[in-house]
Amino acid sequence: MSNIKQYITDNKERFIEELLEIIRIPSISADPAYKKDVANCAEVVAESLRKVGVQEVEILPTEGHPIVFGTHIIDPNLPTILIYGHYDVQPPDPLNLWLKPPFEPYIAPTEVHPEGAIFGRGSADDKGQFFMHVKAFEAMKANNSLTCNVKFLIEGEEEVGSAHLEDFVKNNHDKLKNDVILISDTHIYSKEQPSVTTGLRGLSYVEVSVTGPGRDLHSGLYGGAVPNPIHVLSKMIASLIDDEGHITIDGFYDNVEELSPEERSLMNELKDDPENFKNSISLREVQGEKGYTTLERIGIRPTLDCNGIWGGYIGEGAKTVIPSQAFAKISMRLVPNQTVEEITEKFTQYFKKIAPNTVHVQVKPHHGGLPYVLKSDTKEFLAAQRAMEKAFGKKVYPYRSGGSIPITSMFEKELSSKCVLMGFGMDTDAIHSPNEHFGISNYFLGIESIPYFFEEYCK
Amino acid sequence: MSNIKQYITDNKERFIEELLEIIRIPSISADPAYKKDVANCAEVVAESLRKVGVQEVEILPTEGHPIVFGTHIIDPNLPTILIYGHYDVQPPDPLNLWLKPPFEPYIAPTEVHPEGAIFGRGSADDKGQFFMHVKAFEAMKANNSLTCNVKFLIEGEEEVGSAHLEDFVKNNHDKLKNDVILISDTHIYSKEQPSVTTGLRGLSYVEVSVTGPGRDLHSGLYGGAVPNPIHVLSKMIASLIDDEGHITIDGFYDNVEELSPEERSLMNELKDDPENFKNSISLREVQGEKGYTTLERIGIRPTLDCNGIWGGYIGEGAKTVIPSQAFAKISMRLVPNQTVEEITEKFTQYFKKIAPNTVHVQVKPHHGGLPYVLKSDTKEFLAAQRAMEKAFGKKVYPYRSGGSIPITSMFEKELSSKCVLMGFGMDTDAIHSPNEHFGISNYFLGIESIPYFFEEYCK
Q: How far apart are CA A56 and CA A36, in angstroms?
């Protein structure tokens, strides 16, 4: 391992420069205007795999954005680790809040990353993180230290719900055959308390519309005599969560796995500093479901959030209109044993039930995903924990994150192998937000941890 | 008068063509991108006054858009009628709902206007209506039938709250001196029951923002543990109106003029067909303050409407964000004796009071205006009623409209003369909405009524 460590140190500058190249490509999967950039990014990722010596590299088209797939078999009798990541990124808006353009990466220190962080959309989510695996592979291969077979599956639609991945996986069981799936698309709890993610929430995402009058109306000539869709929608949204932070949708909690007091106290072992949490996101006060800690609210409780709302005149100045329609995007995070179909259906029923008869309501489901849990006594978790403990030189905790990687449960079902969520981001990295960044030390701790994982897993 | 009628008939085609020319100019006062078009429109309006023989025509700059002013004195001892109108228009969005581009006017029949209507932004509000006065002047002058002096004040900022008009009026008392102010910027109740508008509501317009976390957050990693500004704003908006349609702002109704049962029954003389009302705007059900008819809800009751709301991701597809901020534009329509300052202040106090301590709230006042009432026993009202009865050949009713023309009360205060709101639009004209239009028969009934008003008023 000392050879590998030395190799990483010797190539540090280049490993950073190569990552910046990839961040420069605006591979925004949600916006059709960037289709070419997404395709270009796939080419660049494929080339990066070829360059480090992956035996077989393919760009596989889907009905959406392509998948980059790499195969490197050193001995069919050895275990195979499948690396999953994604090269697509979130839309960068609101653009005006970025200090520098989102696709012109640069390095600057932050409070959390005094050694410097790489700023740019996708730096942490997930370009910086999947690329750690490319560079770790390079380091292992260059030092003849590969201990098992490797496959790379880097997709281009994670930020739009991995729309075509499930079909791809279903049709390619043999190609994807593996013993464990290794994913770096999450964050550690903190540098002092690094962690392996052992739980992810699922997701149900819907778009709703409320229609009042058949056309936009003058708010003077009609105001007071017609239902205003913005008010109706506001009231409906307000009534989805009660004063104690519980979601009011009929039967929403029916299937929620309740953790035992022991499990809850284990997950609260991580020391959680509320002041720190508030300060890290400039928050006045936390808010959430009564009876749960912040770690629990995020880790083991289902939630509902409005991700967008719009209606009426939203330009400069004043326009006295009662709009015909108002819209919202609403997502729910799911925990074991809730399913996407169940919750989407319960939401739809309830949302229509609470609509007054003065308006017409529509609910359109977007993508969803199941929750995922990796028990902390499994071989897979323990290999990741030990690998990171070697790289960090610190105790590594199991941690239930609130985010969703909907494909984890699909992988497990289709490929019968466990997903290990060994991510190296930080919750301050501003992923999905302006000024997203990825700590340089995190990047290299990741590149170092991965060979340890290979070693531990193949023991 | 028969000469005038004949002249109008003989010039019908030209009177329409000239109006279309003015509608073609996108004089959108709210949007700085159209500043040149607004200025160009002022030139065209001034030229139209010169062409019909108005003695002195000026384009007077303001700090915003210019005012077109015309003076025509035939005898200083005769009364002077000041015509007020505006050549600016509302923004045309949402553009995709227009059947043809908003500034490419065309003529087509509608159910209400089987004889044809002129479609285009500003056709009814207010280009078609102020231009009736230009053409009526032309007809009177060409037939040597002017019975009094005329002044024209056509401004370019009505749709942005007449920002610079008050200063202009205050500094030009002598120039503006008149006996009565005649305004066509309202609608008749219906073709069967034409009306003169005897009441307008005032306006208080504010923009609010709610800030939760200091930056946009990933809704998975944070959802459930932080206040979501969209939810908070939704709940605050929902709580501004109770289940009986009353506005909950402290002291909101303190100064509201309550009409006597006699006054209320007089205003309900107009036959109001609820089915017709609903159908005209494709509404499922009316909604409003308990204890009042639709005519009363619009005419004599103060109201609150959200005119716009936005926050979070509103693009295509799904983005899992908890936004840092959410925004809304909220307007209140005022009735006698509410004032803009009073209501804006009460709103601000209340909105801050109901904000939870997890968020930061800002309230920014936009423009406002006082309500206006013209009693139906005044010389001014009676002249308008008789003029229209001659042109329409039908009984003409007094009608309290719900809209606002904030400058009416300012005119009365500054110039000590009454405003007569003799408008010829229809409530189906879709002003402020896509596919705004103005009936051709309304246009010519207007052009015909105006000389009758001159005659009646100068008797």
A: 24
Asked if the interface predicted TM-score (ipTM) of this complex is over 0.85, the answer is: no
**Cis before A3 (ω within 30):** no
Average pLDDT rounded to a whole number, residues A310-338: 94
Res B404 pLDDT > 90: no
Question: What phi-psi label fits residue A245: left (phi over 0), alpha (psi between -120 and 50 degrees) or beta?
Answer: left
The pLDDT of residue B203 is 93
Q: What is the per-residue pLDDT for A173?
A: 97
User: Do B231 and B378 have their domain in common?
Assistant: no
Q: What is the pLDDT of residues B26-45, one digit of tens each?
A: 999 999 999 999 999 999 99
Query: Does A406 lie in the same domain as A394?
Result: yes
Tell me, yes or no, whether A158 and A229 share the same domain: no
Structure tokens belonging to residue A312: 């009426």
Judge whether A163 lies within some domain: yes
CB nearest A217 (choices: B230, B326, B433): B433
Tell me which of B369, B399, B419 is where a domain ends.
B369
- Cis check for the bond before B94: say yes or no (omega within 30 of 0): yes
Q: pLDDT tens, B242-292?
A: 999 999 999 999 999 888 888 788 778 888 788 888 988 999 999 999 999
Q: How far apart are CA B330 and CA B307, in angstroms?
A: 6
Residues B56, B170 share a domain = yes
Closest chain B CA to residue A431: B218
Considering only CB atoms, A222 lies closest to which of B93, B219, B298, namely B298
Helices (H), B282-394: 294-299, 340-353, 379-392
Domain boundary, last residue among B352, B369, B386: B369
Cβ–Cβ under 8 Å, residues A27 and A37: yes
Cα gap A46→A144, rounded to integer Å:
22
pLDDT for the residue A333: 95
Do both A424 and A343 map to the same domain? no
Residue B153 within any structural domain of the chain: yes
CATH number, domain containing residue B216: 3.30.70.360
Any domain includes B346:
yes
Beta-carbon separation of A219 and B309 below 8 A: no
B397 with B422, same domain: the answer is yes
The verdict on residue B280 lying in a domain is no
pLDDT for the residue A247:
98
Total domains, chain A: 2
Strand partners, B363: B208
Taking only the tens place, the pLDDT of each residue in A268-320 is 888 878 888 898 899 999 999 999 999 899 999 999 999 999 999 999 888 88
Q: The whole model's pTM is what?
A: 0.79
**Number of A–B residue contacts, CB under 8 Å:** 359
Structural domain including B210 reads 202-256+302-369
